[in-house]
Amino acid sequence: MLAPQIFAAVTSTVLEAITGFHIGWPSSTLPKLLEDTSVPVTQDQASLIVSMMGLGGMTGPICVALTVDKWGRKTSMILGAIISLIAGIMTTFARSYWWYYVARFASGLGMGFTSVVIPMYLGEIAQDTRRGGLSILMAVLSNSGTVLVYCVGPWISVSVLSAFGILMPLVFLLLVPWIPETPYFYTMKGKPELARKSLEFLRSTTDIGEEIEKIEKNVEFDLQHVGTLKTLLTDRGNRKALLLTLVIISAQQLSGITVIASYGTTILNEVDSDISSSTAIIITGVVQLVVSILVTFFADKIGRRPLLLGSMFFSMVFLTALAVYFHLEANGNDVSGISWLPATALVSFLCAFSAGLGGVTRSVISEIFSCNIKAYGTIITVIWTSVLFAVILQLYPNVVNNYGIHIAFYGFTICLAIFSIITFFYLPETNRKSFGEIQQMLHKRSESNQIMQPDPTPECTRSNSVYCIDIKNSIN
Questions:
Q1: Residues spanned by CATH 1.20.1250.20 within the chain?
Q2: TM spans, by residue (predicted)?
Protein backbone atom coordinates (compact mmCIF):
# COMPACT_ATOMS: atom_id res chain seq x y z
CA MET A 1 0.00 0.00 0.00
CA LEU A 2 1.49 3.31 -1.14
CA ALA A 3 -0.83 5.72 0.67
CA PRO A 4 1.38 6.42 3.76
CA GLN A 5 4.48 6.86 1.61
CA ILE A 6 2.70 9.23 -0.78
CA PHE A 7 1.12 11.13 2.11
CA ALA A 8 4.54 11.65 3.69
CA ALA A 9 6.01 12.75 0.35
CA VAL A 10 3.22 15.21 -0.45
CA THR A 11 3.28 16.63 3.08
CA SER A 12 7.02 17.27 2.94
CA THR A 13 6.84 18.86 -0.50
CA VAL A 14 4.29 21.41 0.72
CA LEU A 15 7.47 23.24 1.70
CA GLU A 16 8.38 23.38 -2.00
CA ALA A 17 5.04 25.06 -2.71
CA ILE A 18 5.98 27.68 -0.12
CA THR A 19 9.29 28.27 -1.90
CA GLY A 20 7.53 28.60 -5.25
CA PHE A 21 5.09 31.06 -3.70
CA HIS A 22 7.87 33.31 -2.40
CA ILE A 23 9.75 33.16 -5.72
CA GLY A 24 6.64 34.30 -7.61
CA TRP A 25 5.49 36.80 -4.96
CA PRO A 26 7.31 39.86 -6.41
CA SER A 27 5.74 39.40 -9.85
CA SER A 28 2.29 40.44 -8.62
CA THR A 29 3.29 42.66 -5.72
CA LEU A 30 6.09 44.89 -7.04
CA PRO A 31 3.85 47.05 -9.27
CA LYS A 32 1.52 47.57 -6.29
CA LEU A 33 4.34 48.30 -3.85
CA LEU A 34 5.76 50.95 -6.16
CA GLU A 35 2.35 52.66 -6.26
CA ASP A 36 1.24 52.06 -2.65
CA THR A 37 1.75 55.19 -0.56
CA SER A 38 0.99 53.39 2.73
CA VAL A 39 4.34 51.55 2.50
CA PRO A 40 6.57 53.76 0.32
CA VAL A 41 9.03 51.71 -1.73
CA THR A 42 11.47 53.10 -4.29
CA GLN A 43 12.69 51.21 -7.36
CA ASP A 44 16.06 50.51 -5.71
CA GLN A 45 14.38 49.30 -2.52
CA ALA A 46 12.06 47.07 -4.56
CA SER A 47 15.07 45.53 -6.29
CA LEU A 48 16.68 44.76 -2.93
CA ILE A 49 13.41 43.33 -1.59
CA VAL A 50 13.39 40.83 -4.45
CA SER A 51 17.05 39.84 -4.12
CA MET A 52 17.06 39.47 -0.31
CA MET A 53 15.53 36.02 -0.73
CA GLY A 54 18.72 34.90 -2.45
CA LEU A 55 20.85 36.21 0.44
CA GLY A 56 18.79 34.17 2.87
CA GLY A 57 19.12 31.17 0.61
CA MET A 58 22.90 31.25 1.05
CA THR A 59 22.55 30.88 4.82
CA GLY A 60 19.92 28.14 4.92
CA PRO A 61 22.11 25.24 3.70
CA ILE A 62 24.75 26.01 6.32
CA CYS A 63 22.11 25.89 9.06
CA VAL A 64 20.75 22.60 7.70
CA ALA A 65 24.24 21.09 7.84
CA LEU A 66 24.23 21.76 11.58
CA THR A 67 20.75 20.35 12.28
CA VAL A 68 19.89 17.59 9.85
CA ASP A 69 22.07 14.84 11.32
CA LYS A 70 21.78 16.09 14.91
CA TRP A 71 18.05 16.72 15.22
CA GLY A 72 16.74 14.85 12.20
CA ARG A 73 15.18 15.43 8.80
CA LYS A 74 11.66 15.96 10.17
CA THR A 75 12.77 18.48 12.79
CA SER A 76 14.80 20.36 10.16
CA MET A 77 11.71 20.55 7.95
CA ILE A 78 9.70 21.92 10.88
CA LEU A 79 12.37 24.57 11.48
CA GLY A 80 12.22 25.54 7.81
CA ALA A 81 8.42 25.80 7.99
CA ILE A 82 8.57 27.99 11.12
CA ILE A 83 11.04 30.31 9.42
CA SER A 84 8.74 30.50 6.37
CA LEU A 85 5.80 31.19 8.69
CA ILE A 86 7.67 34.12 10.23
CA ALA A 87 8.42 35.40 6.73
CA GLY A 88 4.73 35.19 5.82
CA ILE A 89 3.64 37.04 8.96
CA MET A 90 6.17 39.84 8.44
CA THR A 91 5.21 40.22 4.78
CA THR A 92 1.50 40.33 5.57
CA PHE A 93 1.81 42.96 8.29
CA ALA A 94 4.72 44.95 6.84
CA ARG A 95 4.82 48.61 7.87
CA SER A 96 7.97 49.67 6.06
CA TYR A 97 10.37 48.41 3.43
CA TRP A 98 12.64 47.09 6.23
CA TRP A 99 9.93 44.60 7.13
CA TYR A 100 10.05 43.33 3.56
CA TYR A 101 13.84 43.07 3.68
CA VAL A 102 13.76 40.87 6.78
CA ALA A 103 10.77 38.86 5.53
CA ARG A 104 12.38 38.11 2.17
CA PHE A 105 15.64 37.12 3.87
CA ALA A 106 13.66 34.76 6.11
CA SER A 107 11.84 33.27 3.12
CA GLY A 108 15.24 32.61 1.52
CA LEU A 109 16.48 31.02 4.74
CA GLY A 110 13.46 28.72 4.63
CA MET A 111 14.18 27.99 0.97
CA GLY A 112 17.73 27.00 1.90
CA PHE A 113 16.39 24.50 4.43
CA THR A 114 13.91 23.12 1.93
CA SER A 115 16.33 22.73 -0.96
CA VAL A 116 18.63 20.50 1.08
CA VAL A 117 16.40 18.57 3.47
CA ILE A 118 13.44 17.69 1.20
CA PRO A 119 15.46 15.63 -1.33
CA MET A 120 17.09 13.93 1.64
CA TYR A 121 13.77 13.10 3.30
CA LEU A 122 12.18 11.85 0.08
CA GLY A 123 15.19 9.72 -0.76
CA GLU A 124 15.11 8.05 2.65
CA ILE A 125 11.38 7.25 2.76
CA ALA A 126 10.79 6.22 -0.85
CA GLN A 127 10.98 2.79 -2.39
CA ASP A 128 13.62 2.52 -5.11
CA THR A 129 10.95 2.26 -7.82
CA ARG A 130 9.21 5.43 -6.60
CA ARG A 131 12.17 7.69 -5.91
CA GLY A 132 12.38 9.29 -9.34
CA GLY A 133 8.71 10.21 -9.48
CA LEU A 134 8.78 11.63 -5.98
CA SER A 135 11.76 13.84 -6.83
CA ILE A 136 9.81 15.36 -9.73
CA LEU A 137 7.02 16.06 -7.24
CA MET A 138 9.25 18.79 -5.81
CA ALA A 139 9.25 20.71 -9.09
CA VAL A 140 5.50 20.24 -9.50
CA LEU A 141 4.73 21.61 -6.02
CA SER A 142 7.16 24.50 -6.49
CA ASN A 143 5.47 25.47 -9.74
CA SER A 144 2.08 25.13 -8.04
CA GLY A 145 3.08 27.74 -5.46
CA THR A 146 4.17 30.13 -8.20
CA VAL A 147 0.98 29.56 -10.20
CA LEU A 148 -1.05 30.39 -7.09
CA VAL A 149 0.60 33.82 -6.98
CA TYR A 150 0.00 34.40 -10.68
CA CYS A 151 -3.66 33.37 -10.48
CA VAL A 152 -4.80 35.37 -7.45
CA GLY A 153 -2.11 38.03 -7.01
CA PRO A 154 -3.31 40.57 -9.60
CA TRP A 155 -6.80 40.81 -8.06
CA ILE A 156 -6.08 41.00 -4.34
CA SER A 157 -4.04 43.29 -2.13
CA VAL A 158 -0.42 42.66 -1.19
CA SER A 159 -1.34 41.82 2.41
CA VAL A 160 -4.08 39.36 1.41
CA LEU A 161 -1.77 37.63 -1.06
CA SER A 162 0.99 37.50 1.55
CA ALA A 163 -1.43 35.78 3.94
CA PHE A 164 -1.08 32.67 1.78
CA GLY A 165 2.53 32.68 3.01
CA ILE A 166 1.09 32.15 6.49
CA LEU A 167 -1.50 29.58 5.46
CA MET A 168 0.83 27.16 3.66
CA PRO A 169 3.35 26.75 6.51
CA LEU A 170 0.42 26.24 8.90
CA VAL A 171 -0.94 23.49 6.64
CA PHE A 172 2.45 21.79 6.73
CA LEU A 173 2.75 22.16 10.52
CA LEU A 174 -0.72 20.63 10.95
CA LEU A 175 0.16 17.65 8.75
CA VAL A 176 3.76 17.00 9.79
CA PRO A 177 2.94 15.28 13.13
CA TRP A 178 1.36 12.47 11.10
CA ILE A 179 4.47 11.65 9.07
CA PRO A 180 7.47 9.76 10.49
CA GLU A 181 11.12 10.58 10.82
CA THR A 182 13.07 8.54 8.29
CA PRO A 183 14.23 5.01 9.15
CA TYR A 184 17.72 5.99 7.98
CA PHE A 185 18.03 8.71 10.62
CA TYR A 186 16.78 6.44 13.40
CA THR A 187 19.23 3.75 12.34
CA MET A 188 22.08 6.26 12.26
CA LYS A 189 21.20 7.29 15.82
CA GLY A 190 21.16 3.69 17.04
CA LYS A 191 17.38 3.43 17.45
CA PRO A 192 16.48 0.24 15.56
CA GLU A 193 12.99 -0.11 17.04
CA LEU A 194 11.98 3.39 15.96
CA ALA A 195 13.51 2.74 12.54
CA ARG A 196 11.42 -0.41 12.19
CA LYS A 197 8.22 1.38 13.25
CA SER A 198 8.90 4.17 10.76
CA LEU A 199 9.43 1.74 7.89
CA GLU A 200 6.40 -0.34 8.86
CA PHE A 201 4.25 2.80 8.69
CA LEU A 202 5.67 3.85 5.32
CA ARG A 203 5.29 0.40 3.76
CA SER A 204 1.99 -0.48 5.50
CA THR A 205 3.35 -3.90 6.37
CA THR A 206 5.39 -5.62 9.05
CA ASP A 207 7.26 -7.66 6.44
CA ILE A 208 10.22 -5.30 6.20
CA GLY A 209 13.07 -7.52 7.34
CA GLU A 210 14.97 -7.44 4.06
CA GLU A 211 14.62 -3.68 3.56
CA ILE A 212 15.57 -2.79 7.14
CA GLU A 213 18.66 -4.95 6.75
CA LYS A 214 19.63 -3.02 3.61
CA ILE A 215 19.13 0.26 5.45
CA GLU A 216 21.38 -0.91 8.28
CA LYS A 217 24.08 -1.87 5.77
CA ASN A 218 23.77 1.48 4.00
CA VAL A 219 24.07 3.38 7.27
CA GLU A 220 27.06 1.30 8.34
CA PHE A 221 28.77 1.99 5.01
CA ASP A 222 28.06 5.72 5.12
CA LEU A 223 29.30 6.06 8.69
CA GLN A 224 32.52 4.26 7.75
CA HIS A 225 33.10 6.41 4.66
CA VAL A 226 32.13 9.90 5.77
CA GLY A 227 32.85 12.31 2.94
CA THR A 228 34.65 15.58 3.58
CA LEU A 229 34.88 18.88 1.77
CA LYS A 230 38.47 17.98 0.93
CA THR A 231 37.27 14.75 -0.69
CA LEU A 232 34.89 16.73 -2.87
CA LEU A 233 37.47 19.27 -4.00
CA THR A 234 40.58 17.12 -4.45
CA ASP A 235 39.22 13.96 -6.06
CA ARG A 236 39.13 14.31 -9.85
CA GLY A 237 35.74 12.71 -10.41
CA ASN A 238 34.08 14.51 -7.51
CA ARG A 239 35.51 17.83 -8.65
CA LYS A 240 34.24 17.26 -12.18
CA ALA A 241 30.80 16.38 -10.82
CA LEU A 242 30.76 19.61 -8.81
CA LEU A 243 31.87 21.75 -11.76
CA LEU A 244 29.28 20.19 -14.07
CA THR A 245 26.60 20.77 -11.46
CA LEU A 246 27.58 24.42 -11.12
CA VAL A 247 27.51 24.78 -14.91
CA ILE A 248 23.99 23.35 -15.13
CA ILE A 249 22.77 25.49 -12.24
CA SER A 250 24.37 28.56 -13.84
CA ALA A 251 22.62 27.76 -17.12
CA GLN A 252 19.34 27.38 -15.26
CA GLN A 253 19.60 30.66 -13.36
CA LEU A 254 21.23 32.72 -16.14
CA SER A 255 18.57 31.63 -18.61
CA GLY A 256 16.46 34.42 -17.15
CA ILE A 257 13.96 32.18 -15.39
CA THR A 258 14.47 33.95 -12.07
CA VAL A 259 13.80 37.34 -13.65
CA ILE A 260 10.73 36.07 -15.50
CA ALA A 261 9.32 34.46 -12.34
CA SER A 262 9.88 37.58 -10.24
CA TYR A 263 9.36 40.35 -12.80
CA GLY A 264 7.00 38.62 -15.24
CA THR A 265 4.11 41.05 -14.81
CA THR A 266 6.44 44.06 -15.06
CA ILE A 267 7.99 42.68 -18.26
CA LEU A 268 4.61 42.09 -19.88
CA ASN A 269 3.46 45.56 -18.86
CA GLU A 270 6.06 46.86 -21.32
CA VAL A 271 4.17 45.20 -24.17
CA ASP A 272 1.23 46.72 -26.04
CA SER A 273 -0.82 43.54 -26.41
CA ASP A 274 -4.48 42.61 -26.60
CA ILE A 275 -3.88 40.23 -23.68
CA SER A 276 -3.45 41.86 -20.28
CA SER A 277 -0.22 41.21 -18.41
CA SER A 278 -2.19 39.57 -15.58
CA THR A 279 -3.84 37.10 -17.95
CA ALA A 280 -0.59 36.41 -19.79
CA ILE A 281 1.32 35.67 -16.59
CA ILE A 282 -1.37 33.21 -15.50
CA ILE A 283 -1.08 31.42 -18.83
CA THR A 284 2.70 31.22 -18.50
CA GLY A 285 2.45 29.82 -14.98
CA VAL A 286 -0.13 27.18 -15.88
CA VAL A 287 1.86 26.13 -18.95
CA GLN A 288 5.00 25.74 -16.85
CA LEU A 289 3.13 23.61 -14.33
CA VAL A 290 1.58 21.37 -17.01
CA VAL A 291 4.90 20.81 -18.78
CA SER A 292 6.66 19.99 -15.50
CA ILE A 293 4.02 17.32 -14.88
CA LEU A 294 4.23 15.91 -18.42
CA VAL A 295 8.02 15.66 -18.35
CA THR A 296 7.79 13.08 -15.55
CA PHE A 297 6.34 10.59 -18.05
CA PHE A 298 9.12 10.70 -20.65
CA ALA A 299 12.24 11.90 -18.80
CA ASP A 300 13.55 8.35 -18.32
CA LYS A 301 12.73 7.34 -21.90
CA ILE A 302 14.42 10.22 -23.69
CA GLY A 303 17.42 10.72 -21.39
CA ARG A 304 18.96 13.62 -19.50
CA ARG A 305 21.31 15.01 -22.17
CA PRO A 306 18.75 15.29 -25.01
CA LEU A 307 16.24 16.99 -22.72
CA LEU A 308 18.78 19.41 -21.29
CA LEU A 309 20.39 20.30 -24.62
CA GLY A 310 17.04 20.58 -26.39
CA SER A 311 15.75 22.74 -23.55
CA MET A 312 18.78 25.02 -23.78
CA PHE A 313 18.56 25.36 -27.57
CA PHE A 314 14.87 26.24 -27.74
CA SER A 315 15.19 28.50 -24.70
CA MET A 316 17.86 30.44 -26.59
CA VAL A 317 15.59 30.73 -29.63
CA PHE A 318 12.72 32.21 -27.64
CA LEU A 319 14.99 34.46 -25.55
CA THR A 320 16.43 35.81 -28.79
CA ALA A 321 12.90 36.51 -30.06
CA LEU A 322 12.16 38.49 -26.88
CA ALA A 323 15.44 40.40 -27.13
CA VAL A 324 14.88 41.28 -30.79
CA TYR A 325 11.33 42.51 -30.08
CA PHE A 326 12.42 44.78 -27.24
CA HIS A 327 15.43 45.95 -29.30
CA LEU A 328 13.18 46.97 -32.19
CA GLU A 329 10.84 48.73 -29.77
CA ALA A 330 13.73 50.57 -28.09
CA ASN A 331 14.93 51.84 -31.49
CA GLY A 332 11.53 53.36 -32.22
CA ASN A 333 10.36 50.77 -34.75
CA ASP A 334 6.65 50.04 -35.12
CA VAL A 335 6.09 46.66 -33.45
CA SER A 336 2.30 46.78 -33.31
CA GLY A 337 2.11 44.11 -35.98
CA ILE A 338 3.99 41.64 -33.78
CA SER A 339 2.56 42.65 -30.41
CA TRP A 340 1.66 38.99 -29.92
CA LEU A 341 5.33 37.96 -29.99
CA PRO A 342 6.48 38.69 -26.39
CA ALA A 343 3.70 36.74 -24.67
CA THR A 344 4.03 33.89 -27.18
CA ALA A 345 7.81 33.78 -26.83
CA LEU A 346 7.53 33.91 -23.04
CA VAL A 347 5.11 30.97 -22.92
CA SER A 348 7.26 29.03 -25.40
CA PHE A 349 10.38 29.77 -23.37
CA LEU A 350 8.74 28.41 -20.21
CA CYS A 351 7.72 25.26 -22.09
CA ALA A 352 11.28 24.73 -23.26
CA PHE A 353 12.73 25.56 -19.85
CA SER A 354 10.38 23.24 -17.95
CA ALA A 355 11.09 20.34 -20.32
CA GLY A 356 14.75 20.22 -19.32
CA LEU A 357 16.41 22.99 -17.33
CA GLY A 358 13.51 23.16 -14.89
CA GLY A 359 13.11 19.55 -13.77
CA VAL A 360 15.83 17.39 -15.31
CA THR A 361 18.53 19.51 -13.67
CA ARG A 362 17.42 18.22 -10.28
CA SER A 363 17.65 14.61 -11.48
CA VAL A 364 21.18 15.06 -12.81
CA ILE A 365 22.35 16.64 -9.56
CA SER A 366 20.91 13.76 -7.53
CA GLU A 367 22.71 11.20 -9.72
CA ILE A 368 26.09 12.75 -10.42
CA PHE A 369 27.51 13.00 -6.90
CA SER A 370 28.91 9.93 -5.19
CA CYS A 371 27.04 8.90 -2.07
CA ASN A 372 29.66 9.87 0.49
CA ILE A 373 30.02 13.50 -0.71
CA LYS A 374 26.45 14.11 -1.85
CA ALA A 375 25.72 16.32 1.17
CA TYR A 376 28.56 18.74 0.50
CA GLY A 377 27.83 18.77 -3.22
CA THR A 378 24.17 19.56 -2.58
CA ILE A 379 24.92 22.30 -0.04
CA ILE A 380 27.42 24.03 -2.34
CA THR A 381 24.96 23.74 -5.22
CA VAL A 382 22.15 25.34 -3.21
CA ILE A 383 24.42 28.15 -2.00
CA TRP A 384 25.58 28.83 -5.57
CA THR A 385 21.96 28.87 -6.76
CA SER A 386 21.12 31.43 -4.07
CA VAL A 387 24.13 33.58 -4.99
CA LEU A 388 23.05 33.70 -8.63
CA PHE A 389 19.44 34.27 -7.57
CA ALA A 390 20.40 37.32 -5.49
CA VAL A 391 22.90 38.80 -7.95
CA ILE A 392 20.64 38.44 -11.00
CA LEU A 393 17.62 39.97 -9.29
CA GLN A 394 19.73 42.84 -7.96
CA LEU A 395 21.43 43.61 -11.29
CA TYR A 396 18.47 43.14 -13.63
CA PRO A 397 16.64 46.44 -12.82
CA ASN A 398 19.90 48.39 -13.16
CA VAL A 399 20.66 46.82 -16.55
CA VAL A 400 17.12 47.53 -17.77
CA ASN A 401 17.14 51.14 -16.54
CA ASN A 402 20.61 51.95 -17.91
CA TYR A 403 20.82 49.88 -21.09
CA GLY A 404 17.36 48.58 -21.92
CA ILE A 405 15.48 45.33 -21.38
CA HIS A 406 16.76 43.94 -24.69
CA ILE A 407 20.35 43.98 -23.38
CA ALA A 408 19.29 41.84 -20.42
CA PHE A 409 17.71 39.23 -22.69
CA TYR A 410 20.65 39.26 -25.10
CA GLY A 411 22.83 38.62 -22.05
CA PHE A 412 20.70 35.66 -20.97
CA THR A 413 20.92 34.23 -24.48
CA ILE A 414 24.72 34.52 -24.62
CA CYS A 415 25.15 32.95 -21.17
CA LEU A 416 22.89 30.06 -22.13
CA ALA A 417 24.83 29.53 -25.38
CA ILE A 418 28.12 29.29 -23.49
CA PHE A 419 26.80 26.86 -20.90
CA SER A 420 25.08 24.72 -23.55
CA ILE A 421 28.42 24.24 -25.32
CA ILE A 422 30.07 23.15 -22.07
CA THR A 423 27.16 20.82 -21.34
CA PHE A 424 27.33 19.28 -24.82
CA PHE A 425 31.02 18.41 -24.56
CA TYR A 426 31.37 17.44 -20.91
CA LEU A 427 28.09 16.24 -19.37
CA PRO A 428 27.74 12.44 -19.48
CA GLU A 429 24.39 10.75 -19.93
CA THR A 430 23.32 9.49 -16.50
CA ASN A 431 19.96 8.05 -17.52
CA ARG A 432 19.66 4.31 -16.81
CA LYS A 433 23.26 4.22 -15.65
CA SER A 434 24.33 2.63 -12.39
CA PHE A 435 26.25 4.61 -9.82
CA GLY A 436 29.44 2.78 -10.74
CA GLU A 437 29.01 3.53 -14.45
CA ILE A 438 28.45 7.23 -13.77
CA GLN A 439 31.55 7.40 -11.59
CA GLN A 440 33.55 5.50 -14.23
CA MET A 441 32.58 8.16 -16.78
CA LEU A 442 33.46 11.00 -14.44
CA HIS A 443 36.84 9.50 -13.60
CA LYS A 444 37.45 8.38 -17.20
CA ARG A 445 38.57 4.97 -16.02
CA SER A 446 38.09 1.73 -17.85
CA GLU A 447 35.93 -0.91 -16.25
CA SER A 448 39.03 -2.93 -15.44
CA ASN A 449 40.42 -0.14 -13.30
CA GLN A 450 39.14 0.62 -9.84
CA ILE A 451 37.84 4.09 -9.09
CA MET A 452 39.71 5.68 -6.23
CA GLN A 453 36.64 5.82 -4.02
CA PRO A 454 34.96 3.41 -1.66
CA ASP A 455 32.68 1.06 -3.55
CA PRO A 456 29.18 1.72 -2.24
CA THR A 457 26.62 -0.93 -1.64
CA PRO A 458 24.13 -1.34 -4.51
CA GLU A 459 21.31 -0.01 -2.37
CA CYS A 460 23.26 3.17 -1.63
CA THR A 461 23.91 3.96 -5.25
CA ARG A 462 20.53 5.43 -6.09
CA SER A 463 19.41 6.66 -2.73
CA ASN A 464 19.86 9.93 -0.99
CA SER A 465 20.56 7.80 2.03
CA VAL A 466 22.41 9.20 5.02
CA TYR A 467 24.13 12.49 4.32
CA CYS A 468 26.93 12.12 6.83
CA ILE A 469 28.29 15.60 7.46
CA ASP A 470 31.29 15.99 9.73
CA ILE A 471 31.73 19.75 9.98
CA LYS A 472 34.66 19.60 12.42
CA ASN A 473 36.74 17.29 10.23
CA SER A 474 35.50 18.47 6.84
CA ILE A 475 38.87 19.73 5.67
CA ASN A 476 41.12 17.21 7.37
A1: 1-179, 227-476
A2: 7-25, 45-68, 75-93, 99-122, 134-156, 162-179, 241-263, 275-299, 306-328, 340-361, 373-395, 407-427
Integer Cα distance of 103 and 89 in angstroms: 8
CATH code of the domain made up of 227-476: 1.20.1250.20
| pLDDT the model gives residue 129 | 61
Label each residue of the chain as H, E or C. CCHHHHHHHHHHHHHHHHHHHHHHHHHHHHHHHHHCCCCCCCHHHHHHHHHHHHHHHHHHHHHHHHHCCCCCHHHHHHHHHHHHHHHHHHHHCCCCHHHHHHHHHHHHHHHHHHHHHHHHHHHHHCCHHHHHHHHHHHHHHHHHHHHHHHHHHHHCCHHHHHHHHHHHHHHHHHHHHHCCCCHHHHHHCCCHHHHHHHHHHHHCCCCCHHHHHHHHHHHHHHHHCCCCHHHHHHCHHHHHHHHHHHHHHHHHHHHHHHHHHHHHHHHHHCCCCCCCHHHHHHHHHHHHHHHHHHHHHHHHHHCHHHHHHHHHHHHHHHHHHHHHHHHHHHCCCCCHHHCCHHHHHHHHHHHHHHHHHHCHHHHHHHHHCCHHHHHHHHHHHHHHHHHHHHHHHHHHHHHHHHHCHHHHHHHHHHHHHHHHHHHHHHCCCCCCCCHHHHHHHHHCCCCCCCCCCCCCCHHHHCCCCCCCCCCCCCCC
The pLDDT tens digits of the residues spanning 196-230 come to: 999 888 888 888 888 888 888 877 876 777 778 88
Residues of the chain with pLDDT under 50: 445-476
Contact 474, 229 (CB under 8 A): yes
For residue 139, which of 348, 364, 322 has the smallest C-alpha distance?
A: 364
Contact 12, 121 (CB under 8 A): yes
